[in-house]
Design goal:
Blueprint (H helix, E strand, L loop, with lengths): L2 H11 L8 H19 L5 H33 L2
């Protein structure tokens, strides 16, 4: 029980492993669209909202990972 929420969160976080550029952004938008589709249906449930929220949290983690990697890359170049 609850493993699907973890799956969505991890899936969102793993988007930071994709190459930067349109592929990463497109994958993130596609995942959000797929997770939002059940929310637009009349038969939506709390689980659908939970999956969407978990994906959002995972994408937020991916954003933090991306930002930290930018800071590390910048500092390593500045020290050369």
């Amino acid at each position: 029980m609850g493993t699907s929420y973890g799956f969505y969160a991890v899936l969102g976080a793993l988007t930071s492993a994709l190459p930067r550029g349109p592929l990463r952004g497109g994958a993130r938008l596609a995942l959000l669209a797929l997770a939002a589709k059940p929310l637009l249906d009349r038969g939506r449930t709390f689980t659908d909202a939970g999956h969407f929220a978990a994906l959002g949290l995972g994408l937020r983690v991916a954003g933090v990972i991306d930002h930290r990697s930018d800071v590390v890359d910048y500092r390593s170049v500045a020290n050369r």
